[in-house]
Amino acid sequence: MDFPDSNHLAKALTIVSGLDTVNLTYHNFFASKEKVTQNWASDILAIAYNAARNNSCRQVFLDKIYVRISLQTNKDGKIPVKNIYKMFPADKKRVESALASAHLPKGKYDTMKPDVFTETAFRTFLTHLCPRPEIYEIFTSYSNKPTMTKENFTKFLNEKQRDSRLNEELFPRLRQDQIKALIDKYEPTTANSNRGLISPEGLLFYLMGPETTVVTQDRLAKSQDMTQPIPHYFIKSSHNTYLTAGQFSGVSSPEMYRQCLLAGCRCLELDCWKGKPPDEEPIITHGFTMTTEILFKDVIEAINESAFKTSQYPVILSFENHVDSVKQQEKMANYCKTIFGDALLTEPLDKYPLKPGQQIPSPAELMGKILIKNKKGSHDKPNQTKKTSTASSDQNTTTAAPTQDPNTTSPDPANPAPSTQENPGCLNRPRGTAGQEVTAYEAMSSLVNYIQPNKFISFDNARKKNKSYVISSFVETKGEAMISKSAVEFVEYNKRQMSRIYPKGTRMDSSNYSPQPFWTVGCQMVALNYQTMDFPMQLNMAMFEFNGRTGYLLKHDVMRRSDKKFDPFCDRIDTVVASTLTIKIYSGQFLSEKNVKTGVEVELIGLPGDPKKKYRTKWTTTPNAINPVWNEEPFVFEKILLPEMASLRIVVHEENGKFVGHRIIPLDAIQSGFHHICLRSESNMPLTLPALFVYIEVKDYIPAAFADFTDALFNPTKGTEKTSKTPKEVKKKKKSIQSKLSSGSIY
């Protein structure tokens, strides 16, 4: 590797893996030829892409288990049976019995040849290890015979697996040849499939296949219009991106920028401070704390490497600039220009000049571009000794007001700062730019165009100025106060220009606030601490999993249209049909490595007026983590006002309160029907075995007072022999209800 012509970097490959963005493992590989490394990288990306697409398919997970066990051979090429016991540790006696039923060796120290451990044998083993009585119960409700006919299977698919809201012209029911194809695919007995019959085992295999994933697959792919102005999108955003732990003494790392970008993040924060002599290299750290320092240049290189690996849509770099040195700001600007090259957007596009009343470009028009958010000065190079900028009193000025550092207190104006910073990143660093950013000198100021930070004056002032390229930042507490007092005005503001929300300074443990309230008023950049995988971060990760993980999600129509006013605290929305979600928790599979009692919690996260009740199943009557069954009444969330802004959260706990797994799914991505929901870890990583079997139905909300009439409208022959109303009365009532349905007024 030391030879000048070896071109070793093109032959090296590093795989970074981990359960979150902080606890990472590095595997380094070196190939003899460049093309070999490229092939490795292509194969790994293909595997990762397919895993991401199929991670909600239960059978994929079980196939992974089979492959893993098959590959774990000893030096003789045989499979140790103890590996199976390790894979399913919850109940060793059940494992032993299931192995015997599958005619496999059951001794803990036994081994078997790979040709003995076939897929069929593994399926038989699983069937005995994890029997599914609830599947037989569902099966017998459609057939009282050992097999189900194609006609009954068709009835099951139409009644249980089809969304009742779908238009049959646009989304026709399955054809008979498609249903026969499903039987052929999943029925294990050839004699049955040849006769168009499906057994309970075949039904189970179908319910674990990709056709019954809980998430609408085309929602995962890039499916949204990306040609709207950027303020019309939610943007996946990070706060203090450089930190791997707490805000006070955590380690800073350029790797966090790579990992956040690879996770689809599109807005990153850089806290920039003046470097020390003799190199005077600008650094990134959390000012006035004991967090470690990293070089600004290293961060820019890390961003450049990973900016467009996951998403091609624009990256916004949010600078909190405390570098009160013309020379070092020039270094920063030069690094951005030379390292980012053509990717850096230094001038506005011709079609979108920086004028009041002119919207800024769309994500599609800025693909592959990096935008700088930094204070924009007057371009007159000031004296080197000038410390801070003059506060802006109006959004029409070119220089932004000093903005409060999220985690520091305002400086005391009676104690002006010394002119040097002897120890950046340390508590002993002298005051100076503690609570405010410094002047944007010409070099950095010239890089700013469509994302110009400015002090927020009022909604009325912003409306009058009408500058879509002006963005204001709000600490979470200020943002919450604005929502409670002026929610409608906040929505209107976010239709025109952007806002960024950041955590309050007391969150020294890097905890997060809930992003949901800020999304409901259309705030685009809701910045979270990515190093902490708490519930708000789980919600954030789940939401931005969709639209191809582009990091941009198009806001609902009511949050974009200039001719409509949206109040998130309303009890109905004229242009939106509310939904009702019903979920029945049937059973769980392989929930814990211990033989424990478990329970399930279900809640809805949405608008303030959406159902707030949190449902819980009872704890299982006996310790059983392999196949617990809950035979309880369905949970109903009625009148979900804006389904596109609501998410369903399901969490499994052990009886002692220990977290087992969870899943958060946006409501408008949920498919009705029976589903196996593969659970996720706290960091939103798919768990291999734990899953829940549920039945979910999402339908249009119908007020109870109208239920009988709408039933009569859509089922006109139902119960006609009992009705006492005249045909004319029924017809008149139908016409009235139909009119209200079409206008949305009953919702």
Automatic annotation (TrEMBL):
EC number: 3.1.4.11
PANTHER family cross-referenced by the UniProt entry: 1-PHOSPHATIDYLINOSITOL 4,5-BISPHOSPHATE PHOSPHODIESTERASE BETA-2 (PTHR10336:SF10), PHOSPHOINOSITIDE-SPECIFIC PHOSPHOLIPASE C FAMILY PROTEIN (PTHR10336)
Domain PI-PLC Y-box: 444-560
Protein name: Phosphoinositide phospholipase C
Organism, as annotated: Sphaeramia orbicularis (orbiculate cardinalfish)
Classification via SUPFAM superfamilies: C2 domain (Calcium/lipid-binding domain, CaLB), EF-hand, PH domain-like, PLC-like phosphodiesterases
Basic and acidic residues bias spans: 719-729
InterPro entries xref list: C2_dom, C2_domain_sf, EF-hand-dom_pair, PI-PLC_fam, PLC-beta2_cat, PLC-beta_PH, PLC-like_Pdiesterase_TIM-brl, PLCB1-4-like_EFh
